[in-house]
Design a protein that fits this description.
The complex is a heterodimer of chains A (307) and B (383). Chain A has 307 residues and is α/β, with parallel strands linked by helices. Chain A has 11 helices and 8 strands. Chain A has an 8-stranded mixed beta sheet, sandwiched between helices. Chain B folds into 2 domains: 241 residues, Rossmann fold (3-Layer(aba) Sandwich), CATH 3.40.50.970; 129 residues, Rossmann fold, CATH 3.40.50. Classes of the chains: A alpha/beta (307), B alpha/beta (383).
Chain lengths: 307, 383
């Protein structure tokens, strides 16, 4: 991971109303540092529809249009088209949605926009449940997790939806995962995305201390452990879904430690944790195989030169 | 230039003349030709606009919402199920005060599947805060599109233009085609300071608590009330430019009428045939077409109907468990102002033809029945 300068400019101010340790808030701060002031946001129903602050206040120094839950990608498509018809080709339009608005209710309009290759950045800040409504399961909630709609007696049995696979299947020019625990990598990816035309999808891992039953001060540590335990690999998919590149240059940490630190997994028995460990390892191996496969495709560059 | 064109294409020509910058739509019978022609016009450079070919009507309207928020003229068209899928965003466009124009081709709602006309799709969107204008001819349809943008941009509310499936959408009539350059004098390019602009960043639609939301809704009602005059002014101004005007209501031979038929859409034209026929027989009868449904033209309706001895409202729609929707509206407009008897008739739902004979049957019933069922009379039910 190459070091990158973190811009000193701030486009997020104090006065936001996020919970302590909110990963989504750190994510916005970093994303805007990377994208700069010529950025317009479209935000569907999610924590960020509240975090920005109540009317007439805003904690952001960029324009922001709130839209309906399932409509982030389609609204952003229209906004970009409208700005271009005004002659403004410079403004980066970014849809900024939670996992519910991306994995569940918004996946139709996201798929439509990606298939059309709309010139937008779509960021999903993933806190792995409907946190704004008070911790209900989404299709991004990991297997084994407690939420208010997957209580301990029947915790989440199905694995998290593989959104990166879904987006890669759309053959869009840029896909990446990013974590608030790795701000340099985070900012590099957003800067890179900014320079690419077409649909760019960035999946941001954003811990939610409130929903994960986690002390707020452990938010960033948890985000780091998600990466080092291979629960949330940092990767890039370029060449329209064909080239996969996974970051491997880290000291692995046990999945078990990551699980044990969070209250939402407290009920899991030893064998259940073991099953999750196996699943994480299998997914990791599949990912590496996919990376390896993509290296051998004819006509693609062997190395991505800027990471 | 005059051309013989279908109703749907009259919409497309209206959009072309209006200098629309972003169009987004999803196919649905019977509006499809509107966007097919627009798509062609965008592709061949006749219109300088972006056409966003989305995956649903919900996305069509949200794309148009996004474009309008950027400060450009934006248009979409739909029908029936499509309009119903847009319902959430119909409200959104109003709350965001975006001057979008939408054409809805009136089609019945399933199940059972039906592609034929009735007004339940658009009338069930009555309380979303969209202005609604019901058109009767292809010429009126084209002209109303151009008027609609001017109205919408003046009051900052979206406008829905409504026409009957097939009876108008697929009917060919002579239309004097508006030339974009002539229209520019009437409808200059759209400019607004209230838009998404990185030089002047604002947040649109942030959480509004009970201490502010109430006032924002009050302002929408004020804009609707203002729209009543704006629709009239814009129509008068259009008439100055192009020699054609349509009013908010259209009375026909009402001055000394004992009976006035209240109509909308293509039923208005059919009714006039019967009015003339019965007038020739010495019967004092007239009709009143309601063109503007929201905001409702209370005074204009009162002025015409209060002079009649009887009013018969013809509804191609039904509010289940209540009555015909225009009937409710007319009753509410006249309540406390006049005692003229109002009788409601339900016809033509699911596209059943409303022929001159049907209109005559209604007129004769209304005139001759000694003690008519006042509120709801179904015409032609076969059971």
């Amino acid at each position: 991971m190459k070091p990158a300068r973190i811009p000193e400019e701030e486009y997020m101010t104090s006065g936001h109303v996020a919970c302590q340790g909110c990963g989504a808030t750190q994510a916005m701060r970093f994303a805007l540092k990377a994208l700069g002031p010529k950025t317009a946001l479209v935000i569907p129903a999610c924590c960020w529809s509240v975090i920005d602050g109540p009317f007439p206040h805003s904690s952001l120094r960029v324009p922001l249009f709130h839209t309906a839950f399932e409509a982030a990608a389609s609204t952003a498509s229209g906004l970009k088209a409208g700005l271009e018809m005004r002659g403004d080709t410079e403004t980066t339009v970014m849809a900024w949605a939670g996992d519910g608005g991306t994995f569940d209710i918004g996946i139709q309009s996201l798929s439509g926009a990606a298939e059309r290759n709309e010139d937008i950045i779509y960021t999903c800040y993933d806190n792995e449940a409907y946190m704004n409504t008070g911790i209900q399961r989404s299709s991004s909630t990991p297997v084994g997790a407690w939420t208010t709609t997957t209580p301990v007696a029947h915790y989440k049995k199905r694995p998290k939806k593989k959104i990166i696979d879904i987006m890669a299947a759309h053959s869009i020019p840029y896909i990446a995962t990013a974590s608030v625990a790795f701000p340099e990598d985070f900012i590099r990816k957003f800067k890179k995305a900014k320079e690419i035309k077409g649909t760019r999808f960035i999946h941001v891992f954003a811990p939610c201390p409130t929903g994960w039953k986690l002390p707020p001060e452990l938010s960033v540590a948890m985000a780091r452990q998600a990466v080092t335990s291979k629960v949330f690999p940092l990767l890039e998919v370029t060449e329209h879904g064909k080239r996969w590149k996974v970051w491997k240059d880290f000291e692995p940490t046990p999945v078990r430690d990551y699980i044990k630190a969070q209250g939402r997994f407290r009920h899991l028995k030893d064998e259940e944790i073991k099953a999750i460990e196996e699943e994480v390892e299998n997914n990791w191996q599949l990912l590496l195989a996919r990376e390896q496969m993509s290296m051998n495709l004819p006509g693609l560059n062997k190395e991505d030169d800027d990471s | 230039m005059k051309k013989v064109i279908m109703g749907n294409h009259a919409v497309s020509y209206g959009v072309k003349a209006s200098g629309v910058k972003v169009i987004s739509a999803y196919p649905i019978t019977p509006q499809t030709q509107i966007v097919e022609l627009l798509s062609e016009m965008c592709a061949n450079g006749e219109i300088d606009a972006k056409f966003i070919k989305v995956e649903s009507e919900h996305s069509a309207l949200t794309a148009v919402v996004g474009a309008s928020a950027a400060g450009v003229r934006a248009f979409t068209a739909t029908s029936s199920q499509g309009l119903l899928l847009m319902h959430e965003i119909l409200h959104w466009a109003v709350g965001a005060r975006l001057p979008i124009v939408l054409t809805n081709v009136n089609r019945s709602v399933g199940p059972p599947w039906s592609i034929w006309t009735d007004q339940n799709d658009s009338l069930s969107q009555r309380d979303t805060g969209w202005l609604q204008l019901y058109c009767e001819s292809n010429q009126e349809t084209q002209d109303t599109i151009v008027q609609a943008f001017k109205i919408a941009e003046t009051v900052r509310l979206p406008v829905m233009l409504v026409l009957d499936a097939f009876f108008l959408s697929h009917t060919y009539e002579i239309v004097d085609i508006l030339e974009p350059n002539d229209v520019k004098k009437f409808l200059p390019p759209y400019e607004t300071d209230i838009r998404i602009d990185v030089e002047h960043p604002h947040a649109f639609g942030n959480l509004a608590g009970p201490d502010t939301y109430f006032e924002l809704r009050f302002m929408i009602q004020k804009a609707m009330e203002e729209a009543r005059d704006v629709v009239k002014k814009v129509d008068a101004e259009f008439k100055e430019h192009f020699g054609r005007g349509y009013g908010v209501v259209q009375p026909y031979r009402c001055d000394d009428a004992d009976l006035i038929l209240v109509t909308s859409g293509t039923i208005a034209s059919t009714s006039r045939v019967i009015i003339d026929e019965m007038r020739d027989e010495g019967i004092k009868i007239g009709s009143l077409k309601i063109r503007l449904f929201r905001p409702f033209p209370f005074d204009e309706v009162y002025e015409v109907l209060s002079k009649a001895k009887k009013v018969a409202v013809i509804d191609r729609n039904i509010s289940f468990g209540h009555h015909g929707i225009f009937f409710q509206e007319i009753k509410s407009a006249l309540y406390g102002r006049t005692d003229v008897p109002i009788i409601g008739y339900i016809v033509g739902i699911g596209g059943r033809d409303v022929t001159p004979k049907v209109i005559r049957e209604i007129a004769e019933k209304a005139l001759n029945d000694e003690n008519p069922e006042r509120d709801i009379n179904w015409i032609g039910v076969k059971m």
